[in-house]
Specification:
Layout (H helix, E strand, L loop, with lengths): L2 H26 L1 H17 L10 H32 L2
Helix pairs in contact: 1-2, 1-3, 2-3
Length: 90
């Protein structure tokens, strides 16, 4: 296995495990389920760099990608929460 594949596998495993932790948190705390994703996405979108860096095109592109990744991540976590709630209600 090459280094890129190992890094991808490691990041995928970490993302899965962190997603599981957030899902458990959100199942236990409905307020966190509503507030944490929004707060983290807002922080990444609006407070992740200084004004001096705001004109750096590469940083702006990276910031946009981070926001998109966080949105996808929390959408996946929400799907896990919904699935878990569905199983509980059966």
């Amino acid at each position: 296995m090459d280094d890129k594949t190992r890094i991808y596998a490691l990041l995928s495993a970490q993302q899965f495990l962190i997603g599981q932790l957030y899902a458990r948190l959100f199942l236990a705390d409905a307020d966190a389920r509503q507030n944490v994703p929004k707060a983290l996405i807002d922080a990444a979108q609006y407070r992740s760099h200084t004004k001096a860096q705001a004109d750096d095109e590469a940083l702006i592109e990276m910031q946009a990608q981070i926001v998109l990744d966080l949105q996808h991540f929390f959408a996946d976590v929400e799907n896990r929460v919904q699935e878990s709630l569905g199983r509980r209600n059966r």
